[in-house]
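Support request from a user on the community tier.

User writes: "When I paste my structure tokens into the form, the page sometimes reloads and wipes my input. The last time it worked, I copied everything first. Here is what I submitted, just in case something in the input itself triggers the reload:"
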């Protein structure tokens, strides 16, 4: 696979942080990404080669997406909270920041949210992780939950017992959801019903009710209709699966943290069919962007671990990369905005 790769001109590096959460806004032709541990949001404008940085004081920032129909409103996760933010896209501080949900309040530990994105109907999906140790580079296992923030503003837990919640993406026909629990080293797929956000698409409503409650009764609810479509360990794929996205052919592009870069996987046959090598072993999140969704943008992490040095992980660690001439486009919708704008207003009003 021939391609050209460079640091996105004018983008800002996360030198001592963890670049993540790449989201392409096709309407504005802008790219959003975050520095998770550096607690910042970036808005990158490829046309002008400008990049604006927003500082967040309240905690780690794993994901941000626009709110549909609201030019300066964003849904942003901070720590273990989901928030609605008003930002003009250029200022160093948000105009307003209000919490709409706090997750895992009954957990025995203080968990934190990680990767998140919207399905084609505009629901926001995100998962949690247990306490993380910078000394070991590990999080406490089995403490995470995969959540969905519906367009009605309500938050629903779908999968429990997650070790390290990470990348999400969907098939072009919206019938399959793919999900990375990084420590499992396996790529999971679920039948998906885009009309109601259910992971039990093949069942009738009555069957869904019975099946789901039987799972809860036997403590198997964390499995859902999960099936494995690619085993990273069995295929000797270096690194841990992180963020991912889907191309128009239905193939998956998966960032491999501590691996070679972004691998291309055909989920129909369970095989790796390509790789974009990134000049740092810290690839975190890919997304397709550009006017025709022909550019693959890839965020990376800098030297965010206390024991790391930039020289150990590459001179461009923490950079935003753009990859061109890869011979495929992203799915037609690009990044999807959160569609529950009215419900967010209602939830914010209730909390005030």
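"...and here is what came back when it finally went through:"
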């Amino acid at each position: 696979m021939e391609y050209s790769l460079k640091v996105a001109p004018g983008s800002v590096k996360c030198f001592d942080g963890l670049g993540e959460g790449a989201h392409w806004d096709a309407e504005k032709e802008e790219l959003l990404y975050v520095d998770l541990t550096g607690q910042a949001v970036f808005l990158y404008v490829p046309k002008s080669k400008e990049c604006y940085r927003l500082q967040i004081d309240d905690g780690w920032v794993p994901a941000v997406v626009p709110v549909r129909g609201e030019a300066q409103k964003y849904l942003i996760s901070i720590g273990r909270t989901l928030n609605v933010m008003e930002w003009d896209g250029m200022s160093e501080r948000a105009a307003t920041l209000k919490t709409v949900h706090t997750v895992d309040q009954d957990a025995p530990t203080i968990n934190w949210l990680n990767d998140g994105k919207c399905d084609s109907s505009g629901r926001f999906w995100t998962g949690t992780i247990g306490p993380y140790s910078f000394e070991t580079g590990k999080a406490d296992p089995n403490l995470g939950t995969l959540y969905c923030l519906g367009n009605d503003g309500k938050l629903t837990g779908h999968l429990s017992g997650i070790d390290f919640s990470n990348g999400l993406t969907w098939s072009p026909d919206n019938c399959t959801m793919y999900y990375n629990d990084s420590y499992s080293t396996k790529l999971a797929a679920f039948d998906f019903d885009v009309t109601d956000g259910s992971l039990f698409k093949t069942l009738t409503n009555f069957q869904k009710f019975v099946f789901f409650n039987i799972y809860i009764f036997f403590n198997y609810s964390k499995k859902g209709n999960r099936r494995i479509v690619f085993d990273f360990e069995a295929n000797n794929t270096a690194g841990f699966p992180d963020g991912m996205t889907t191309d128009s052919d239905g193939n998956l592009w998966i960032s491999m943290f501590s691996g070679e870069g972004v691998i291309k996987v055909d989920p129909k046959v369970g095989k790796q069919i390509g790789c974009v090598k990134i000049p740092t072993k810290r690839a975190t999140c890919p997304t397709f962007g550009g006017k025709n969704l022909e550019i693959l943008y890839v965020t990376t992490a800098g030297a965010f671990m206390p024991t790391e040095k930039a020289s150990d992980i590459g001179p461009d660690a923490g950079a935003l990369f753009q990859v061109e001439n890869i011979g495929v486009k992203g799915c037609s919708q690009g990044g999807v905005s959160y569609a529950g704008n009215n419900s967010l207003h209602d939830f914010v009003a209730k909390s005030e």
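Agent notes: The reload is a front-end session timeout and is unrelated to the input. The first strand starts at residue 4 and ends at 7. The helical segments are 205-217, 310-313, 341-351. Escalated to web team.
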